[in-house]
Amino acid sequence: MKTYEDFLRHHQTAHPFNMNPRLGIFAREYIGHRTRLGRPVRILDVGCGLDPALAPCKAVGDTYHGCDFYDERPRGVDEYTQLDLNRDSLATALTGQTFDVLFCGEVIEHLFSPDALLRELRELMTDESILLLSTPNLGYWVNRLLLLVGVSPLFLENSAERKLGRFVRALGQGNPTEGHIRLFTYRALRELVELCGFEIVSTTPTYVWRFPPDLVISRFSRSLAATNVFLLRRSI
């Protein structure tokens, strides 16, 4: 019987994408925050993967700290903490440390308790810190149409091994799963971050696949976009 750790050993927790629109927003907000602070910053990349896509964006003088499941040290990081976010405490592993910019992109959908991780990230922040958070949107407009015809939504995974209920390979039928455990609509994610002690500074909707409806919808609707980037601060 496969365990969740067996799954992680054979899957990248962070996809080795080039700079996609979501990561572009992460990079832009990081550079903007660094400019406002006017000093070098400490960056924490949660679930960075073995080849962190944001590491090349690091400005001179900044410290890039990655954390993930793998024993192998990721490329491009200055510091690394190995831990299993479903089992270990990030706040305990990084006791006494704080970070100015925290990246948590497409991570919380892989966790049994995203609440616990968000509260621990809050402990690693100061009043000047920002957290950049994203996760797939279950309420994506394509998913709403798929459900109307009885097709399992994108991002939702029923089996630990294969994507099911998609009917055709173009929608992912039979493809290996990505380890999604929790999924959020836009409203549910807003409620979660507020519950965990964060103030929402801004939310930027964006797309995953470049086709015309997504490019249009991601400009005006957070609840229908494929994903949103949340810019968060600790609430007082």
β-strand amount:
15-25%
**Tally of extended strands?**
7
CATH architecture: 3-Layer(aba) Sandwich
Looking across the biggest beta sheet, what order are the strands in? Answer: 3-2-1-4-5-7-6
Order of helices and strands: HHEEEHEHEHHEHE
**Number of H/I helices:** 7
Instruction: Let me know the average pLDDT.
Output: 92
Would you identify the regions where 5 or more consecutive residues have pLDDT less than 50? none
Query: What is the CATH domain class?
Result: Alpha Beta
What do you see in this structure?
This protein is an alpha/beta fold and 236 residues long. It has one domain (4-234): Vaccinia Virus protein VP39 (Rossmann fold), CATH 3.40.50. The chain has seven helices and seven strands. It has helices at 4-9, 21-37, 90-93, 114-123, 141-148, 186-195, 212-220; strands spanning 42-46, 63-68, 79-82, 99-105, 125-136, 198-206, 227-234. The chain has a seven-stranded mixed sheet, sandwiched between helices.
Produce a short descriptive summary.
Helices cover 27% and strands 22% of the residues.
Topology:
Elements: H1 4-9, H2 21-37, E1 42-46, E2 63-68, E3 79-82, H3 90-93, E4 99-105, H4 114-123, E5 125-136, H5 141-148, H6 186-195, E6 198-206, H7 212-220, E7 227-234
Parallel strand pairs: 1-2, 1-4, 2-3, 4-5
Antiparallel strand pairs: 5-7, 6-7
Features:
7 strands, 236 residues, 22% strand, alpha/beta, 7 helices, Rossmann fold, seven-stranded mixed β-sheet
